[in-house]
Amino acid sequence: MPRGIRPFIDSVSGPDLGNTASSLHERREVLTDTARELLSEYHLATLSTLDRHGRIHSVPVGITYLDGIVRVIGSRGSQKFINAERSGRASVNTVDGRRWISFEGPARVRTDPDAVALAVALYAARYRQPRPNPRRVVLELTVERVLGSAGMRVSDG
Questions:
Q1: Of 45, 50, 138, 146, which sits with the fewest C-beta atoms within 10 Å of its C-beta?
Q2: Is residue 65, in this structure, part of any structural domain at all?
Q3: How far apart are CA 65 and CA 86, in angstroms?
Q4: What is the pLDDT of residues 16-70, one digit of tens each?
Q5: What are the angstrom distances between the C-alpha of 66 and each of 51, 63, 118, 156?
Q6: DSSP string covering the chain, please?
Q7: How many domains are contained in the chain?
Q8: How far is Cα 87 from Cα 54, in angstroms, rounded to an integer?
């Protein structure tokens, strides 16, 4: 994993989640230590998107969380990425017993090498090094809403 990268950060900013100094300064903490612990453990998640008929398409995925963005890696052309590109929205949920957390927001699929490399490094830190895949892309979900079991969000405290 590249030096200085942490797989999850407990902050979400307003509408602009860019990496400018001002947006970093405006971030507010939303996740508790309990949530960060859940997100550091080896648990799969469910990614939900809408298909072309408006039906829910849910699939198991590995997720990472960094700086208000949830990332999912996979192959270009996969239905989950097609759906996310079409609708521009997605949600993910991960659960372990009574602990669960869900993220919702706008989603985009990125193909640029730097975005994919970051997503792979984060994935490898949480799960394992993924197999080589020349068709790899990354879905980035910008977190607008966080739901979870008691104690997952700062506002729950």
A1: 50
A2: yes
A3: 23
A4: 333 333 333 344 568 999 999 999 999 999 999 999 999 999 999 999 999 899 9
A5: 27, 10, 10, 21
A6: --TT--S--SEE-SS---SSHHHHHT-EE-B-HHHHHHHHS---EEEEEE-TTS-EEEEEE--EEETTEEEEEEETT-HHHHHHHHHSEEEEEEEETTEEEEEEEEEEEE--HHHHHHHHHHHHHHS-PPPP-TTEEEEEEE-SEEEESTTSBGGG-
A7: 1
A8: 9
CA distance 18 to 52: 30
Kind of pairing between the strands at 145-148 and 99-110: antiparallel
Structural domain for 124, as ranges: 11-149
Q: Is 1 a domain residue?
A: no
**What tokens were used for 129?**
């090094």
| Type of residue at 30 | V
- For residue 92, which of 56, 54, 122 has the smallest C-alpha distance? 56
| pLDDT tens column, 107-139 | 999 999 999 999 999 999 999 999 999 999 999
Asked if residue 157 belongs to a domain, the reply is no
If we measure between CA atoms, which residue out of 42, 85, 78 comes closest to residue 59? 78
- Domain CATH code at residue 22: 2.30.110.10
Length of the chain in terms of residues written: 157
